[in-house]
Amino acid sequence: MKPNLSSTIYRILFCLLFVFSVNCKTKIDLGKETTLPVLSSLFNNRMLLLLKGTYATDSPLDWSELNGGTGVIYKDHEDNGDGNGGDPAFSVGDLPLAGNLPIFIDIGEVRISSKYTKGLNDLTQIKDALDSRKFWNFIAPNRQVFCTVPYSFDDDTCKQNNGVQRAIEFFNGTGAQYPSNDPSSETWEKEDNPTETAATLNSIGKSFVGRQYYYSGIYFRSLVTGYAKDAGIPITTTTRFDNRLVYGLNIVPRNNYTPGTSAVAKTQIVPKMFPVLYSQKPTQADMEVRDGFDPFILEVRANMKENLMVHSYTTSRNTVVTYVGFSDVFNDHKGEGDTGGNILTRARIIYPETASSLVITGGGGSLRHTFGVFRYAEGDYTTTLPLAATPSKSTAKIKYLNPGSYKLVCLGDVSNIDGFPDTIVAETQFSIPEYPFRATYTVDLPCP
Predict the structure, then answer these.
(1) What is the distance between the alpha carbons of residues 369 and 96, in angstroms, rounded to a whole number?
(2) CA distance 409 to 398
(3) Residue 127 contacts by C-beta under 8 Å, 6 or more apart in sequence?
(4) Which residues pair with 346 in a beta bridge?
(5) Residue 4 burial (10 A CB sphere; 0-12, 13-18, 19+)
(6) What is the pLDDT of residues 164-222, one digit of tens each?
(7) Is the backbone peptide bond immediately before 433 cis, with ω within 30 degrees of 0?
(8) Considering the entire predicted model, what is its pTM?
(9) Residue 50 phi/psi, 5° resolution?
């Protein structure tokens, strides 16, 4: 006897219902995606993770606009024999412009943490793998590879990751999408901060309608800049990226420690590229995952594009290596093998369904000046990355700002010309109200 059409449809519907019921999650499950099927994670994903390699969040300078519109890579001070020290003489006869510099980026993962107390003092309290597992929320454990130019003819990891396009987005302000799971939005529990009281956490900006995260970390497996010479000869046979020989130098080891760090001290310090750490201050509180289902963006960025700089050091073989690293903004480099401590990161969570836009008037178009947005209670304008930033142009605009009180600051790269704003020119205050949603506000601040 043939089944009728009606019974067949019912059977199909029952099968579909069964499949979706075993793979879908309820609200209680959000944040536990790493233990659930991949299909389930994709089905209910709330978060979009974006990585940016720029000081500015919105409309960063084009490669050709860097260094005052010349596009030239900054150079550290060379030792001219005046007794003040400096880098050994550079080999830069064929140094490319910043926009032509090959850059290869291999990121192992991105993590965040809600354990405020445990992360104090730059992760020195994390003593072993068990501590690390308890501390971090492993939201993005999949390796990703970006490259500004191809580095092989075969199907390498960058091509598999669509890495050339994502490198463009990493550096142009769009942000490179990084595959991730949703972090937990469960309200604070005692295990997050066992030594803190609820009143103390409330005083540092922790609300009780979601979960505040205090730390983010980007784990760089390798970061190769495609210009390096040893004794004036291009380094082409010793640097490997994605298990392939490339021209350049892996600068992760160079940036793990600040200049002058002793071998003994290094045994007590967490390497600065493992991870590149952002520690949210109590006055910021911009990493809250609200309870509910509204989508959000986790943006994590680092000051890389605007701060490329040539350095050199003397090897144990008494040869001089010249390479492209990052500006020695905070830790002066004078020929040491280490140049770390100058890459900053900042993370923020954006709710695009409710966030507003900011139009800034008063920008004069100087390529060495920037509008930076900071939380109202912040004061470290030149030693941290702004919450949001954009060059000082007449078309200046910040795309996303959550409700709150802010300061808009005009900052200039005028004291040490190295791509990082170091001088406060002017500032003003403004607020973004809770309502209406997705509004546009205008603030005027004269800036060169």
Answers:
(1) 24
(2) 13
(3) none
(4) 301
(5) exposed
(6) 999 999 999 999 999 999 998 876 555 555 555 555 555 544 444 689 999 999 999 99
(7) no
(8) 0.86
(9) -120, 130
31 φ/ψ angles, rounded to the nearest 5 degrees: 95, -5
Nearest 5°: the CA angle 36, 37, 41 is 80
Cα radius of gyration rounded to whole Å, the chain: 24
Name the burial class of residue 145, with classes exposed (0-12), middle (13-18) and buried (19+) by CB atoms within 10 angstroms of its CB: buried
Characterize the bridge pairing of strands 308-314 and 74-75.
parallel
35 Cβ neighbours under 8 A, 6+ residues apart: none
Residues 100, 214: Cα–Cα separation, whole Å: 36
Identify the H or E element spanning 16: helix 5-23
DSSP-derived letter for residue 381 is: T
Q: What SS3 class is residue 292?
A: coil
Residue 135 phi, psi (nearest 5): -80, -45
CA dihedral of 228, 231, 234, 238, whole degrees rounded to 10: -80
User: How far, in Å, CA of 99 to CA of 72, rounded?
Assistant: 9
d(CA 152, CA 164): 12
